[in-house]
Amino acid sequence: MANDKLSLSKHAISLEVIGNEDMIDSLSLKSTNTILYCKKWRETVHFYEHQLGLSITFAADWFVEFRLTEAAHLSVADERRATIKSSGGAGLTLTLRVNDADEAWSKLHNQGLALEPVRDHAWGARVFYFFDPEGNRLEIWSAKS
């Protein structure tokens, strides 16, 4: 890993791998799915389906997959039926880019969600944060107009 560069700042960590530019292309990735293992499975499924309005693409009695985009999905798994346990939201932020963060904030606020205020972020975005029932942090952002 001698060619790896790690850049740390107050706001972000990024890893740049030099010499492996074609690695992702060579994997022929078609889609991505992030799986949240949850103790509060039913509440978390309800949150993503009814409060965020995500469409279900697959559902079983312990696992639900939601569509984020054509190629990106978010799944919620009941930790009692999985081999991986809940992290309780530790060390995880789900970042979702939208067209207008202020409009998204208003819609979610009107549904009674506890949201942090929208603010300008140093990297040129409007952003706000909130948490799902499992304790996972969500970041909603849009480019500053």
Would you kindly provide a written description of the structure presented here, covering whatever features stand out?
By secondary structure, the chain is α+β, with helices and mostly antiparallel strands. The chain has a single domain, classed as Roll (2,3-Dihydroxybiphenyl 1,2-Dioxygenase, domain 1). The protein contains 3 helices and 10 strands. The strands form 3 sheets. The protein has a 4-stranded mixed sheet with strand order 3-6-5-4, with helices on one face. A 4-stranded mixed sheet has the order 7-10-9-8. A two-stranded antiparallel sheet has the order 1-2. A hairpin with a 3-residue loop joins strand 4 and strand 5.
Number of helices: 3
Largest sheet: 4 strands, mixed
What is the correct CATH architecture? Roll
Terminal CA distance: 39 Å
Class based on secondary structure composition and strand pairing: alpha+beta
Return the average pLDDT rounded to an integer: 87
Q: For the record, what is the CATH homologous superfamily label?
A: 2,3-Dihydroxybiphenyl 1,2-Dioxygenase, domain 1
CATH topology: 2,3-Dihydroxybiphenyl 1,2-Dioxygenase, domain 1
Radius of gyration: 17 Å
Order of helices and strands: EEHEHEEEEHEEE
Query: Order of strands in the sheet with the most strands?
Result: 3-6-5-4
Number of domains as seen in the coordinates: 1
Low-confidence stretches: 1-17
Tell me how many strands there are.
10
Taken as a percent bin, the fraction of beta residues is 35-45%
CATH class: Alpha Beta
Q: What sort of overall outline do the alpha carbons produce when their principal axes are compared?
A: globular
Helical content (DSSP H or I, runs of 4+)? 10-25%
